[in-house]
Amino acid sequence: MVKENARHLIEYMIMMFTMIWVTLIASLNWEDQCLVVVRIIHIQEDVELDDHDPRPDPQTETRSVSFYVPRDDEFSEVKRASFITKTADSVLHALIPSLQTSLIDSNLGFPLFSDIDDLYYQGIAIPKLKNQGLLQRVVKAVSDAKEDLIKFDTPAMFDKDKFSWIRDEEFSRQTLAGVNPYSIKLVREWPLKSALDPDVYGPAESAITKELVEQEIKGFMTLDEALEQKKIFIIDYHDLLLPYVRKVRQIEGTTLYGSRALFFLTPDCTLKPLAIELTRPQMDEKPQWKQVFTPGLEATGCWLWRFAKAHFLAHDSGFHELVSHWLRTHCATEPYVIATNRQLSAMHPIYKLLHPHLRYTMEINALARQVLISADGIIETSFSTRSYSMELSSVAYDQLWRFDKEGLPADLINRGIAVEDPTAPHGLKLLIEDYPFANDGLILWDILKQWIADFVNFYYKDASMVQSDTELQAWWTEIRIRGHEDKKDEPWWPLLNTPEDLIGIITTIAWVASAHHSAVNFGQYALAGYFPNRPTIARTNMPCEDPTREGWNKFLDKPESELLICFPSQIQATLVMAILDVLSHHSPDEEYIGKHMEAAWGEEPAIKEAFGRFSARLKELEKIIDAKNADSSLKNRGGAGVVPYELLKPFSAAGVTGKGVPYSISI
């Protein structure tokens, strides 16, 4: 009764409050009216009470529809208005046609490639829908205010060359200048071999043989010479995915393999794809199945290669979203946010330095937990690992994540892409000289590190000042012991004893929150908005895996149709496209590194001067990147119909631009 009375009182107050504001906001411009309405909605959500306890057992827990975010980590009013508006405008591109499709067949794919093109050219009709749940406000607004057709924006890659996704050169180029530049690594041991238990998963030896590789690189060198000269590179998801193959294949409408792709570094610094290996472990009384696919000239081999690329790219898309993106940026940053707010006072210099790098991350992560990584969310319904996606992310954290390898130089060395060289720029020599992400990233890393060094050295003159700062030491202890408790005893955690230690730690945190996140996030719609280039799921097995006569004949008769069936369904594709559009979007009030100085930094003339140098170097980086993209000798950066690499250009306009490095993970 008390709860019911409280609800009636609150509803009455909101009604009266709204009536007053309707009169007041009539004189405001459209943008200000949006801000007021958004704020009223936000207040209403905050005070909403539950009419009843839905739990059958008071001792049990139920999932909340929202996640608590501290007030000082919430979006600004402008960002909240922009995010809600963009989400409504974009998600409706997918949700409405997806709901229409689901009434017929939730597994329906695209019959023709021209049907995919129509998502951009002709649009999709909006059906008459009942407003439900969280869609009620959004669906009604669009149904009342928009036309009957909704179109997706044309992704940059599709706009420049709609057929580039077919080319092997573009497939290889995007490993260095795409949205997931963090997976490629040097082959250090040969032959390739799995570390998994052969009694469980089958023979550990790879089917990629020396003879096969030399057939692909003939005219260049032998395999032994290529290994010695560090010319063979790999993206290897074999051991990470293979334990999930049997589990995932029990889910209707999807399949999975352990996979790896091998590349050769040619004299012009481009990568030549050599082979893709797909493996099914021994399961269901069947022996292990594995096969190697190579770029072919004859028709059947060529089409099998395209299928193999689709499967591998689906795996790469999942790893990118679950590990390179979610785990290594959004997820790993949360302990930094929490420890900084718990252990450092707002007056502490390191709090002032870190604050812009940690702003809004808790809020965007809360939203991700509601719709992206939640049970039956976008990831679980539309990506290869389906309901095992977050488990896979946790396994990757256990096996792969190390704080001391999260900074760019350490990451490149760890992957064998670079070696330490005091005579080289940035102290590193890149084995792949034309590696756009690494080339631009190392310049940005140095600029960021110098700014942080100037800041830290102003406040900490010697080691004793670092060691005696109890807040600072408690902060670093909480990050290690509480924030990453599963790894608290690892020997690789950096010590925090000197100003140099502090500079390294802060630079790594700032890099992850700014440049790392930007590199894996803001190019998503440009390069994956046309999903054949980066499908998120492969729904059917390879045509040559235990084929039936009927299935094999279908493949031989119409391989294009079979590939379209393998690609994501209409629901899966449009949902992902809409989400990628949202994630790739810069809000009007985006806070880019070095663009505007924080008020707290201007209190000391020395810090203000250091920020001026920081900002000037970032503006110079923009010119450097433009010049590199105009250099025709750098084939991984541009060319006819190629989207230039701009993801680490510091500044950007609002919208989907494929460039811009905000301070923090705010989308």
Strand order of the largest sheet: 3-4-5-6-7
Unreliable spans are 15-55, 128-148
Rounded average pLDDT:
87
> What gyration radius follows from the Cα positions, in whole Å?
26 Å
**Helix/strand-derived class?**
alpha+beta
Q: Quick one: overall form?
A: globular
Number of E-type strands: 11
Our count of helices gives 27
Quickly list its features.
667 residues; alpha+beta; five-stranded antiparallel beta sheet; two-stranded antiparallel ribbon
Description:
There is one protein chain. With about 675 residues, the chain is α+β, with helices and mostly antiparallel strands. The strands form four sheets. The protein has a five-stranded antiparallel β-sheet with strand order 3-4-5-6-7. Strands 1-2 form a two-stranded antiparallel ribbon. Strand 6 and strand 7 form a beta hairpin. The longest helix is centred in the middle third of the chain and has 45 residues.
Which helices and strands occur, and which strands form pairs?
Layout: H1 2-25, H2 30-47, H3 77-102, H4 113-121, E1 124-125, H5 136-145, E2 149-150, H6 156-160, H7 168-177, E3 185-186, H8 198-201, H9 210-217, H10 223-228, E4 232-236, H11 238-241, H12 245-249, E5 258-265, E6 271-280, E7 289-293, H13 299-343, H14 349-358, H15 361-371, H16 378-382, H17 389-400, H18 408-414, E8 418-420, E9 428-430, H19 436-459, H20 463-467, H21 470-483, H22 499-521, H23 524-528, H24 549-557, H25 559-566, H26 570-583, E10 585-586, H27 605-629, E11 655-656
Antiparallel strand pairs: 1-2, 3-4, 4-5, 5-6, 6-7, 8-9, 10-11
